[in-house]
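Task card 7
Instruction: Convert sequence to structure tokens.
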Amino acid sequence: MFQTDQNNGNSEIACAKINLALHVRKRLANGYHDIETVFAFLDHGDLLSVEPHDEITLSITGPFAKGLSDKDNLVLDAARLLAGSAGTAAGASIFLEKRLPIASGIGGGSADAAAALRLLNRYWDAGLSLSELVELSAPLGADVPACVVNQTCTGKGIGQDLAPLDNGALAGYFVLLVNPLVPVSTASIFRDWDGFDQGALPAGSLLDILLSGRNDLQGPAERLAPAISDILSNLNETGALVSRMSGSGATCFALYETERQAEDAKKMVSAELPDSWTMIGGLK
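Output:
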């Protein structure tokens, strides 16, 4: 059973999502892929806030706002979907501070849409449970339900068959994210997957899965964006428990027991790859 976060007020973090492991099992006739993955979330990300308004509107600011539409946006789709489901005519002026790179494999628009659902469900007093929000969010995209949950979980099918997974020995760990600021196409990377099923997620604890798991999209992504290989090569020299690419890339992550270790690793990577974006967050 997933636990609802005890959030208050008129703001909500769209937490960065990472795939601690991502096993691609087969291609499906509908264009999606049958996957097995572990979603985990950081305590940092984009920030959404809301103020009263007669209509539903969106304003976008922040270092990665450029190129995003405030008219055709998944956040607006989520808001309208919730308003229709809740039968409310209320409006909302939504503000999105875009702190995470676009098309980077760490949630992006999915996390923003999910955060909008949680925020507006509270703001409008719509009264939907977390399970109901998860179900409502499914048409918005494969990753949106997991981002609504916003807790460590396994995802199967297209990623929407979710089950909670305890952080166990990884509770309190810190994560360093590194992105080369090279957008990559999820569709292209999935297309380049070799179609070979290398097996299911390993059984056991989150730590077992992390250590024995893999990301089947890492190879295709590295071929499309060689900068990913440079990042992983540098992260492998920082003493991380594990370093791996998240999702379809291009963001890579590394796990550390302490924040100091993560900060030291960030300095090392930034010195070698000064044009890369970095962020440190705690594992939720």
